[in-house]
Amino acid sequence: MKIRTRFAPSPTGKMHVGNLRTGLYAFLISKHEGGDFMLRIEDTDQERYVEGATDIIYRTLDKAGLKHDEGPDKDGGYGPYVQSERMKTGIYMKYAKELVEKGEAYYCFCDKERLATLKSEVVEGKEISIYDKHCLYLPKEEIEANLAAGKPFVIRQNNPKEGSTTFHDELYGDITVDNAELDDMILIKSDGYPTYNFANVVDDHTMNITHVVRGNEYISSSPRYQRLYDAFGWESPKYIHLPLITDENHKKLAKRSGNTSYMFEELVESGFLSEAVVNYIALLGWSPEENREIFSLEELIQEFDYKRISKSPAVFDNVKLRWMNGEYIKAMDFDRFYDMAEPYLKEALGDGFDLKKIAAMVKTRIEIFPDIAELVDFFKELPEYDTAMYTHKKMKTDSVSSLQVLQDVLPILEKQEDYSNDGLYQTLLAYVNEKGVKNGYVMWPIRTAVSGKQMTPAGATEIMEILGKEETLRRIRKGIEMLQNA
Q1: What is the pLDDT of residue 486?
Q2: Other C-beta atoms within 10 Å of 186: how many?
Q3: CA atoms within 13 A on the CB side of 101
Q4: Which of 5, 159, 275, 456 could form a disulfide with 26 if both were Cys (CB 3.0 to 4.6 A apart)?
C-alpha cells in the first residue's frame, strides 16, 4: 500500500518551528517510502483565521523545500483540500448524521446558561466543562421539533462511560484509557463548522491518509478519534506522535522567548539559511543511524526512519542552530554567499570598499548574516580602543615594543607603492627578517593600529589592502600618537 501523509496547518499566522517539524516529518516519512505528501488547509476555526496566512503556509513550505504532491493548488483527486470548502459540500454533516443514526452521536440543544452550570475539571492546564449527556435522552419528537423550529444545536460524540478504548501509536505502542475519562466532544459546532477533532478524522479517512504525524499533545485526544474510526467501521491510520520541543529552560516553545524567535520566517529574516533551519529542525526529536549532523533534504529523505524518533522532549538550542548555520555558510558557493551578504556589507560600510574581498574575509567567520556588521565596521571608521590591546603575551609584544615597530614601519610604508596584500606582506616580512623576530611581533601591533580590534576577519596586510595607503598611514600615525601619550 502506498504511504500517504498530510500536513494540515491552520491559517493563523506565521509558522512555528514545531508546526514546521510536523510537516517536515510527514514529508520525510512519505518520501522515504516513495509515497505522497498532501497539503490540507484546516480553517474550521474561523475566529483564529488570519488574512494572508495561507500564503505564508505556501511560502514557508517552498522555502523549506517541502513540495506537496496534492493540495489546494494541485488536485490529486481527493479535493477540495481546504476544510471550509469541504464543509460546503456537506461532507461533515453527512458523516455526523450517520453517527447520529448509529447512536454514536446526538444533537445537543443546551444553551450557554445551562452549560455554565455543569461541573468542570482541569485537563492539560485548561478548565473544561464535562457534559452530562442531558440531550442524549431527549425524546425523538422533541429533537425533531427543535430541528424544525431552527433551534441552535451542536452534534456531540456519544462516548460510553464503561469499559476502555485502546489505540496504537508507532512510537508509544498501545495506549489504553478508561472510557469514563472521555467527554462527549462536539463534532459539529453551532455555526455548522466541524470541530478540528471531527474534521481531521473524516478528512484523513476520505483522503486515504495512511500515516498521521502530529505532536504528542494530541495523544490525549486520540482515544476519541479511535472511537470515531470504530464507530464508522473504518481502519484507523498509523499514528506517529512527536515529542515536545522546549526552549533552553525546558518550557514549551512559545512564539518568542527573549531575543529568540521560534517562527520560521522570522528566523530566515534574521539571517538564518532556510536549509540550515530545516536540517536543525529535523534533528529535534530524530537521530540518524550515523553520528552526523549535517544533512541536505535529499539526504534526510534517504536516511529518515521514523522508528528512530525519540519520545523524550527536544531542546531548541539557539547556539547549536547558529553553529549549524555557520557550517552551511562556510560550505556555500561564494557567488550565492555574496548575493546574500552584500546588503549587510552595504548597510555596514556604504560605498568605496571592495565588498567582494571583504565578503571573502568574513565567509568562514560568521554564523548568521547580521554578524557581518560587527566584524567589518572598523573598515569604515577606526573605533576607540585601549592601548592595552598592544600587549599580547603570545606575540611577546607590549606598548614599548609596539611603539618601536610602528615607528620603524611607518617610513617603510610611506615609501611603499604596492598596497596589495602580497606586496605589503613581502615588505613587512623583510622587516621581520631584518629584526630577527617572529611574524606576530610585527603584525600584531600593525593589525591593532589599523583595526582597533582584537578580533578581525583578516590579517594586517589584507586589512591594509582594503583600507588603501592613505587611510593605513593615518591609522598607524594615530597608533603611534596614542602609544606615545599612554
Answers
A1: 85
A2: 18
A3: 7
A4: 5
Spatial CB neighbours of 56, under 8 Å, sequence gap ≥ 6 = 11, 13, 14, 15, 265
The pLDDT value given to residue 47: 78
Q: How far apart are CA 362 and CA 182, in angstroms?
A: 59
Q: What share of the chain is helix, strand, coil (3-state, %, to 5)?
A: 50, 15, 35
Residues marked as catalytic: 255
User: Within a 10 A sphere around the Cβ of 306, how many other Cβ atoms?
Assistant: 19
Using CA atoms, how far apart are residues 334 and 219, in angstroms rounded to an integer? 46
Could you please report the per-residue DSSP string of 212-281?
EEEEGGGGGGHHHHHHHHHHHTPPPPEEEEEPPEE-TTS-B--SEETTEE-BHHHHHHTT--HHHHHHHH
Contact 396, 432 (CB under 8 A): no
Place of cell 495506549: 175
Closest CA to 349 of 384, 381, 388, 325: 381
Question: Which regions of the chain are under pLDDT 50?
Answer: none
Grid cell in block for residue 201: 478524522
What was the pLDDT predicted at 50?
85
Which grid cell sits at 438? 617572529
Q: What is the pLDDT of residue 258?
A: 62
Helix, strand or coil for residue 187? strand
